[in-house]
Design a protein that fits this description.
Low-confidence stretches: none
CATH class: Mainly Alpha
Mean pLDDT: 97
Number of domains: 1
Shape: elongated
Helix content: over 70%
CATH architecture: Up-down Bundle
Amino acid sequence: MWLFICTEILLFGGLFLLYSMYRYKHPQAFHAASLELNRFDGTLNTAILISSSLTVALAIHFLRQDRRRQAMGFLALTLLAGAAFLVVKGFEWAEKFRHGLFPNSLVLLARDKGQILYFGLYFMMTGLHALHVLIGLGVLSAVLILINRSRVTAGRPVLLENSGLYWHLVDIIWIFLFPLFYLIT
């Protein structure tokens, strides 16, 4: 699991480096484009994901104590938080599409090259992150079913622990994406 997490860090690390290079080349355009994002939505999603890190950690804690019902409850809360994150991101993306601020749109192509790059990176990086959230939701849902069937137990918690590690990775990646796109102007 740790090797997989390292490869994910390399993937997103490369994208963060790419973002940094383009931001260095086009600081005014990146600033102007960043003002088009909804900081409330980004902040809300940050709070949702940070809370979901707590709930998955509590699920692991309660499973280790052989308190299966509580573990399942906190895992369900994690799933709800992940789904809420995707809903907020969906509304945010829909707003960008309504305004024509998506890759290869005529509205965006009429803008400065730096803004085109900014929104290209925004959609690519937040889209890749959303895909990771979706995968995490699938894995955590499967683990919830396995806990319910007593296949993941206090004596065999590794699947939940590894799934929790992956979920924490997803949260940490967002903690880097949030300031890059929403706060650093």
